Amino acid sequence: MLETNLATAVSAKHAAVVAMAFAALFALGACSDSTAKKITGPGVEQVAESAADKADDVDEDDIDDDEVDGKHVYEQVEFLGNPLVSEVTIEKANHDQYNRTQPYNSAVFGPQSLAFINAFRGSQPEVANTLGAVLYPDMLIVESSRNPATSGWLSWALANGWGGRNLSDDVVDAGLSAIFGKIITATGAYCDNFTLPLCTDNVPANDKAFSSTFPYLASPTL
User: Fold this and answer.
1) C-alpha span between 152 and 99 (Å, rounded)
2) Is the peptide bond between 137 and the residue preceding it cis, with omega within 30 degrees of 0?
3) pLDDT at position 139, please?
4) Is 205 contained in some domain?
5) Structural domain boundaries, residue 143
6) Rounded to whole angstroms, what are the CA distances from 206 to 47, 87, 125, 196?
7) pLDDT confidence band for 206 (50 / 70 / 90)
8) Which end of the chain is more exposed for a tag (fewer CB within 10 A), N or C?
């Protein structure tokens, strides 16, 4: 279930409903994308060759002392792709294990996410099926061939958009509304989208304006 794309995870009717809902959510007017996508990355050999090529070009004066022996080991302590996957749908006891996993580890953690969603929307399997198909593998996806003006969380899958995540995206409200609200189906919803009691964190906007220069984040509160 988790290895299929959106087109095979939900029926054509549900795909159209979801696409229209997220099109409104992200102010996008495009229809749902039914083209199968396969996410690929460089092979191990390619990565090794690239690293070797770069190593040949490095000036020895630029190498830190702790990197000379090539035995420096880094430990992964946190992993976050799509917002709310770990914080909301993964069992609390497994958070540390999840933080040390890789995006494609769907078989281990995907069922936990589906179980959480189905605990509330078990009578509407299209909710878990849709979210399971777009949230795993757990990474932010950008379809660079599309219009950047259509960027937005999950817009790549549900609104034929560019994808990624904008600083202004209210991902908490969007995620809660997808699970508990009417974004995917109104049947069995606990609340209207982006409203209390369960479809919002009740934080309507950032407390500071974003910067107009890179990295565009608002200044910290000290």
Assistant:
1) 24
2) yes
3) 94
4) no
5) 6-34+77-180
6) 39, 20, 34, 18
7) confident
8) C
Contact by Cβ (8 Å): 214, 162: no
Query: Looking at the predicted structure, is the pLDDT value of residue 97 above 50?
Result: yes
Q: What is the pLDDT of residues 139-186, one digit of tens each?
A: 999 999 999 999 999 999 989 999 999 999 999 999 999 999 999 999
CA distances from residue 209 to 168, 213, 217, 218, 219 in whole angstroms, order as listed: 10, 12, 8, 6, 8
Return the amino acid letter for 26. F
What pLDDT score was predicted for residue 187?
97
Fill in the amino acid letter for 94: N
Domain count, the chain: 1
The Cα 189–Cα 120 span in angstroms is: 9
Residue at 126 is within a domain: yes
Does residue 111 belong to any structural domain of this protein?
Answer: yes
Half-sphere exposure at residue 57, Cβ-oriented, CA atoms within 13 angstroms:
6
